[in-house]
Amino acid sequence: MTGRGAAAAAAVLIVFAVLVAPAGADDWLPHASDATWEYTWTDSVYNTTPTKEKVTVKSTKGGAFTLAWTTDGEQNPEDAPVSLGSVAFQEQPFGLIVTDWTSNPPPTSFPILCASIGSCGNSLASSLYNLIWGTRAPLLAEPLLAGTAWTSTGGAQNDVTSSSQYLGTEQVTVPAFPGPVTAAKVQAQVTQAGALGDPYGSGVRTVWWVFGVGPAKIVFQHKAGEVTTVQLSSTNQQQKTAPPDANYFPFKQGLAGTYSWTNTRWLKKPEVEHFSIDAVANGTARFAFKSVSGPLKVAAAYVFTTRTNGVTEVSAAAKAASLAKLPPLGPKFQPVDKRRHFFTPFDLMTFGFNPLLPAYPAAGNLWGSDPNGPDWVNFGVTGKSTVVGVQRVTVPAGTYRALVVRSSLKQAGFPFGSGTRTSWFAPDRGLVKLVFQHADGSVSRVELMR
Question: What is the pTM of this model?
Answer without folding.
Answer: 0.90
